[in-house]
Amino acid sequence: MSQISLTFPDGNSRSFNVGITPAEVAAGISTSLAKKAISATVNGEHWDLAWPIDGDAAIAIHTMKDGDQALELIRHDFAHVMARAVQAIWPDVKVTIGPVTEHGWFYDFDRAESFTPEDLGAIEAKMKEIINARDPVRTEIWNRDRARAFYEENGETYKVDLVDRIPEGAPIRMYWHGDWQDLCRGPHLQHTGQLPADAFRLMGVSGSHWFGDTSKNLQRISGVGFRNRDELKAYLNFLEEAEKRDHRRIGREMDLFHMQEEAPGQVFWHPNGWTIYTTLQDYIRRKQIKGGYREVNTPQVVDRKLWEASGHWEKYQHHMFIVEVDESRDGETVDASSAKNREHTRINALKPMNCPCHVQVFNQGLKSYRDLPLRMAEFGSCARFEPSGALHGIMRVRGFTQDDGHIFCTEDQIETECARFIDYLADIYSELGFADFEIAFATRPEKRVGSEESWDYVEAALENAIKAVGRDYRLEPGDGAFYGPKLDFYLTDAIGRVWQCGTFQVDPNLPDRLGASYVAADGERHRPFMLHRACLGSFERFIGILIEEHAGRLPLWLAPRQVVVASIISDADEYVGKVVGALRAAGVRAEADTRNEKINYKVREHSVGKVPVILAIGQREVDDRTVTVRRLGEKATQTVTLEQIVDTLAAEATPPDLA
């Protein structure tokens, strides 16, 4: 029999018979490994232990200790076990597809009746029975006709459709978990008993459709799964904490904003929310001025000609809101279907980004190399048509404002401007409470414009800039834009979630397309480089991140309602007014609560509204010219003089860049 050579992670190689499986390789190493093995990596691909190896290869055997591979298999097998449990309880249910997701899996079912929460409990119990049965998992490769006939005979119409969707030449793998069968690409565990029976949870039921066909309604059951009970518990605790921090719930409690059907994906800011927005905007405006940026403002509705010239019309039109204007109407109501109107119709678009408009500002007047770098910034209001299913509170919207900026510079200024921006960004993030961030460096993609020499130079400039400011980075080969490399900046919040906010992108393409130029030292016109940059990204999204990062307990300078001065007795009302006046004079947002309610009621109400500081005023405080201070989240109180609390709160209410 022919021999093949398998190379192990330690570099050693051994010869085996052609067709040997990873399971047999593991057994040849040790009985213990054969029992613990769950899958293998063969020439960089994740393999089932039962798949035969037909040629020389690099191989690694995986156990439950190998996190990524283990989690993928666990969740894939949980999906199959769940589908098997559903059909064991309700034999008439048809199964469709069940892929792995970030923390678990889902499976879509065709069932006449709706699944209930009680049904989920029954499914979980049946899944544990199947796991404890330790049924073996086996796989075979069938031809298309045989697989199709098998599913037609068993009435699995969705599986017939799936067989037809498999590309010609791709293997059609049939898997059995005990006596239950499914069509699957694999890999899978050796037997159901390798699944941890105490490390999964079914999370709920939602509606779905068969490959977007709205005439075929399905029910989706989702679950989460982990390697052990402790990992599951940690994840459920994470979900509980995330729910407490949900910006939509906190937004209601703090009366920050709302959204409604008449304006999907757009925010109605209430006074409290708009206070956060404008306070943050004022802070960024001051930082931009100090950073050498000149603020501009550009139109929101722009003729399609500009978007065609910039290239966005061809590549980005599906995300644009199109606006058709009849230039002949002259203020009159007209029939939109008339030929005359169509003849005079101008097609515009709400701007989805600001960069083409900033080039137009740059193009006004002759620019010299002495004018560069030219740093331009705008709080640009943009609109993008996001799918309705992707909208999520103020985190994912259709109407938003960016802290957008563009730097027009020469090629040899790129490195300096990049290093300068990273320090600028680090300063802002630090003052906003994020002590550190991660940089992802995305390099040239396969399809790109520009010479290799230019790419070499620009990529080296970005790398040198990162090193110059003493930062590490994560390389993302091939993920750059077609016109240039980029840096993306990631923040990690209080419960470990990662958010991509800032960006820095090098672009020689757009200035070229839109005719931007400057007069160089040689007297000739040259094309500038355009550096796209943002710190917060979308104001709406970043405010959502801040709300969830702080669970609504924003630092005093950002809190919309900073201090409530609450009376304990009506005789204290006059002094309450004096305290409020003193605080307001010191720049603190203070308000009085002199309602005829008990102080405990007032404290509870304002605590739910996330007011950072409550000052209680009774007869003793009136007599002594003091206040009793209760801070949000703290049970202990402190009594201090009016002068002390005014000085303390005025300092805390000062934005960090002005402190």
In short:
The chain is α+β, with helices and mostly antiparallel strands and 659 residues long.
What report would you give on this structure?
- 35% of the residues lie in helices and 27% in strands.
- With 659 residues, it is an alpha+beta fold.
- It has four domains: 3-63, Ubiquitin-like (UB roll), CATH 3.10.20; 68-241, Threonyl-trna Synthetase, Chain A, domain 2 (Threonyl-tRNA Synthetase, Chain A, domain 2, 2-Layer Sandwich), CATH 3.30.980.10; 268-325 and 354-549, Bira Bifunctional Protein, Domain 2 (BirA Bifunctional Protein, domain 2), CATH 3.30.930; 563-652, Anticodon-binding domain (Rossmann fold).
- Strands 15-19-20-27-24-23-21-22 form an eight-stranded mixed β-sheet.
- β6 (94-95) and β7 form a beta hairpin.
- α3 (67-89) crosses α4 (117-133) and α5 runs antiparallel to α6.
- The radius of gyration is 31 Å and the shape is globular.
SSE topology sketch:
Elements lengths: L2 E5 L5 E5 L4 H8 L1 H6 L2 E4 L2 E3 L9 E6 L4 H23 L4 E2 L8 E7 L6 H17 L3 E6 L1 H10 L3 H9 L6 E6 L2 E4 L16 E11 L2 E13 L3 H17 L1 H7 L3 E2 L9 E2 L1 H20 L3 E2 L5 E3 H7 L1 H5 L5 E5 L12 H5 L1 E6 L4 H8 L11 E10 L15 E11 L4 H18 L6 E5 L9 H17 L5 E3 L9 E7 L5 E10 L1 H5 L4 E2 L5 E2 L2 E10 H11 L13 E5 L5 H13 L4 E4 L5 H10 L4 E5 L1 H6 L1 E6 L5 E5 H11 L7
Helix pairs in contact: 3-4, 5-6, 8-17, 14-15
| Strand arrangement across the biggest beta sheet | 15-19-20-27-24-23-21-22
Unreliable sequence segments: none
Task: Give the overall shape.
Answer: globular
Top CATH class of the largest domain: Alpha Beta
Number of strands: 32
CATH architecture of the largest domain: 2-Layer Sandwich
Measured by DSSP, the beta-strand proportion falls in 25-35%
- Could you say how many structural domains there are in total? 4
Q: Structural class from helices and strands?
A: alpha+beta
Helix content: 25-40%
Helix count from the secondary structure assignment? 21
| CA radius of gyration | 31 Å
Determine the mean pLDDT.
Answer: 93
Question: Could you give the distance between the termini?
Answer: 79 Å
CATH fold description of the largest domain = BirA Bifunctional Protein, domain 2
Please outline the major beta sheet: 8 strands, mixed
CATH superfamily heading of the largest domain: Bira Bifunctional Protein, Domain 2
